[in-house]
Design brief:
It contains eleven helices and twelve strands. The chain is α/β, with parallel strands linked by helices and 298 residues long. The chain has an eight-stranded parallel sheet. Strands 1-2 form a two-stranded antiparallel ribbon. A two-stranded antiparallel sheet has the order 10-11.
Length: 298
């Protein structure tokens, strides 16, 4: 139970009712990279074993990541043959360099066009920071260029029947979240939607639910996808469960607004995450909890 914004939200009633089938919840590729890594294994080093683990964990939908158009056909064929659906994909992009925008947008579109052949609907992208591990911030000019590029990319994706969903990590929340906000205020809503990664927003704002739910208030109508990750006392928890972020409240707000974004589990491990179960068990338990929290999204 959490006291948030003057209202008490609890998952007690959610867990007291039969689940039936629940909503469809996909699992992000990074989740498996993370859990495999801590077990000393490499994701897809043994494709048959990896897909077996997916099935045993109860994964019926997946969000793959693609680096090149050539990556797409083989991965999609394997997922389809294992009866795992795909609605969204994650693609990295470099969009702040004005000299390279045409080339970089074309590279993303080449991946999108290949994936669209298999029915892919949503392309999630997190424009690359200046440094993944540094503290450098993009200039105003770079942010203006990046927003322009995002809008252009979103328009081109719409023209082939796909949706662009902007995603962020914690770097975009620095300096009053200037990068995050400009990617939405500087683009047209019909071209650029939002993949709300609740925990990166929470962490990037100094572990603040106030900041997270303010962003939900500001941009709810643009949310087409949720990335689901939980923490305990600021450290990623081993499973998606009760924790720092009040996901019951988030689910209720979206329900009240008649919004049903695509749900993607992205629970992961980091230094300090408990290590008490294997990947299949942790991800399976996470999916079960997520299905209950978002049960009204079925």
């Amino acid at each position: 139970m959490a006291l948030t914004g003057g209202a008490i939200f609890t998952s007690k009633d959610i867990f007291s009712r039969p689940l039936d089938n629940g909503p469809s919840i996909a699992c992000q590729q990074y989740t498996w990279f993370s859990y495999y890594q801590r077990e000393g294994k490499s994701w897809m080093a043994d494709p048959e074993a990896s897909y077996k683990d997916l099935r045993q964990a109860g994964v019926k939908a997946f969000e793959p990541s693609f680096d090149t158009p050539e990556d797409v056909p083989g991965k999609m064929l394997k997922l389809t043959s294992n009866k795992i659906s795909t609605k969204s994909m994650y693609v990295n992009s470099v969009l702040h360099d004005e000299q390279m925008l045409t080339k970089n947008i074309a590279e993303v579109m080449a991946i999108a066009a290949e994936a669209r052949k298999s029915g892919m609907e949503i392309l999630v992208t997190n424009p690359t920071p200046l440094s993944w591990n540094g503290i450098e911030n993009k200039s105003d000019q770079q942010l203006l260029a990046q927003a322009t590029a995002l809008d252009q990319l979103g328009e081109q994706l719409r023209n082939i029947g796909m949706t662009l969903a902007y995603h962020n990590h914690d770097a975009e929340m620095r300096q009053s979240a200037r990068e995050f906000h400009h990617m939405l205020t500087g683009t047209r809503p019909e071209n650029v939607k939002l993949c709300l990664d609740a925990h990166w927003i929470y962490r990037g704002a100094g572990n603040s639910q106030v900041a997270l739910f303010d962003i939900v208030t500001l941009y709810a109508d643009r949310i087409v996808e949720l990335h689901l990750r939980q923490s305990q006392d600021g450290i990623w928890s081993e499973t998606f469960d009760d924790g720092d972020i009040d996901y019951a409240r988030l689910a209720l707000i979206l329900k009240q607004k008649n919004l049903k974004p695509h749900l993607v589990l992205e629970q992961a491990t980091e230094k300090g995450t408990p290590n008490t179960m294997d990947a299949v068990t942790a991800i399976g338990n996470s999916l079960t909890y997520a299905k209950r929290i978002f049960r009204d999204f079925a």
